[in-house]
Amino acid sequence: MKESILKQKTYAFALKVIKVYKQIIAEHKEYVLSKQFLKSGTAPGALVREAEYGQSKPDFISKMSIALKEANECDYWTCLLRDSDFITQVTALDLLTDNVEIIKMLTASINTAKNNLH
Questions:
Q1: d(CA 50, CA 91)
Q2: What pLDDT does 1 receive?
Q3: CATH for 2-117?
Q4: What is the pLDDT of residue 94?
Q5: Read out DSSP for 9-70?
């Protein structure tokens, strides 16, 4: 059940990231920071989907751990875009709030999978 909710949340988050990315390039013609933001913001959802059919429990843990690292990286790019005035405080807060929830869910899934290894 948790993975299903996580799939939904990472997909919805990726859609938000894509919309913000499109806005940044349209309004500011900024392509370097925004591309990093786009990649790190859409990667967790793809990795969660990839982990769903992992070859083994360690493979699942590895994919979910990479998703967690990407989510953390997205947090960095979001703050950087906010602090350099490419996105508003409101937009950043919305993204950061969603991303914190995803990070917590990924961490819980990884910890559960690790505990089930033993």
A1: 28
A2: 44
A3: 1.20.1440.60
A4: 98
A5: HHHHHHHHHHHHHHHHHHHH---HHHHHHHHHHHHHHHHHHHHHT-SSHHHHHHHHHHHHHH
